[in-house]
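Glycosyltransferase family 2 protein: structure, please.
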Amino acid sequence: MTDPRTTVVVITHNRRPELLRTLDRLAELPEQPEVFVTDNGSTDGTSAAVARHHPHVRLLRPGRNLGAVGRNLAVRRVRTPYVAFCDDDSWWAPGALAGAADLLDRYAALGAVTARIVVEPDGTEDPIVEELRNSPVPGPRWLPGPALGSFLAAATVLRTDAFRRAGGFNPRLWLGGEEELLAADLAADGWWLAYADDLTIHHHPSTARDSRRRRQDGIRNTLWFTWLRRPARPALRRTLHLARTVPRDTASLRAFAEATAALPWILRERRVLPPEVEGRLRLLEDSQRRSTARSYVG
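Here you go.
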């Protein structure tokens, strides 16, 4: 059951064993997708190992760590109508890529579909899955699942052209909640995002991660998105909420300092979302404040 509709894009940095495991799993998929790997400046022999063990993978080596922009670099070369992202410690289940492509084929206004996340090695659902299932975002009745206000890059299949027209991932955000800005811009372009419970991706969280840096960047990126796209009053409300609720430590302080230092860029790039998209975000924001699945802890 080969399926030529979807290309898989993976970014990696110094996680050679995890990446090779992911590529082994992707090579076993019945869809046999083309796979791009952007090696974000690894120093652990990642590129050589990929070339040796998976010679059919399209390997990109920008020579430095581009963060999420490494995905943009690969998508420029994608020739299929759909692109699926996964991280170097996650992999798509058999049939999931074909199922996502079927949904995107069927619904012309569907821009992205996010899968159920199963955490390995225990095979349990990620806590955020319940939040996705119970998304408060209103959507049209034709949607194949709950409407979403954002997506998880490591568990989502998108329309390639929609991704490109929206500009991909913003280089300033690097990594950590980088999806929120792109998701809002996709919605502003008229695309719907949905969750599909019958699609699955597996995630075996890597221990090679800097949780403090990821949390710092996540807080900063949330602030940047808020200031770039939200109207003044909701932006102020969300900023104050973050100031009250993030951990009172050096990482949070640096995040707010970095965010504030970029205010000239924010003012140049600020573009408020259409009212209907802003309305969806308000509902999502209220839900996230009550969520136990989301927190700025890394």
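Notes: The two ends are 38 Å apart (CA to CA).
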